């Protein structure tokens, strides 16, 4: 019985492979004809990519990235004149200072 199942499974697999090959051949043959027909229609009616729906939705602009306004500096290094807004990673000249009030602008 196991041998019959192996033979049947092998036969079905071979049939499937043959059908897949035939399907692919038929698709390629039909694809070439369809492409030729479509290209003729595009040329006949002088259609553009926009006419065919390519290139985005008409009348809709892409979203623009919001720009952030720069923040006024809050601290100034008295030695170099460098400034820091108080946001983000603190620069070395103020990073290890316990009392930052002496650097306030």
Automatic annotation (TrEMBL):
Tell me the domain of life.
Bacteria
Q: Could you tell me which InterPro entries the record lists for this protein?
A: H-NS_C_dom (IPR027444)
GO molecular-function term, one example from the UniProt record: DNA binding
Stretches the record annotates as Disordered? 53-91
Q: Which UniProt keywords apply?
A: Coiled coil, Cytoplasm, DNA-binding
Q: Name one GO cellular component term.
A: nucleoid
Q: Where in this chain does the record put each DNA-binding protein H-NS-like C-terminal domain?
A: 65-105
Transmembrane parts of this sequence: none
Query: Does this UniProt record's set of keywords contain DNA-binding?
Result: yes
- Where does the UniProt annotation locate this protein? Cytoplasm, Nucleoid
Which stretches are annotated as coiled coil? Answer: 2-32
Protein family (similarity comment): Belongs to the histone-like protein H-NS family.
Protein name per the record: DNA-binding protein H-NS-like C-terminal domain-containing protein
């Amino acid at each position: 019985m196991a041998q019959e199942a192996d033979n049947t499974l092998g036969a079905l697999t071979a049939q499937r492979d043959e059908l897949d090959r035939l399907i692919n051949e038929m698709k390629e043959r039909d694809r070439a004809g369809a492409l030729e027909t479509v290209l003729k229609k595009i040329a006949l009616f002088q259609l553009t990519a926009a006419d065919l729906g390519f290139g985005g939705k008409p009348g809709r602009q892409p979203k623009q990235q919001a720009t952030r306004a720069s923040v006024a500096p809050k601290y100034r290094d008295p030695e170099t004149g460098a400034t820091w807004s108080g946001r983000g990673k603190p620069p070395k000249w103020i990073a290890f200072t316990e009392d930052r009030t002496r650097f306030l602008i």
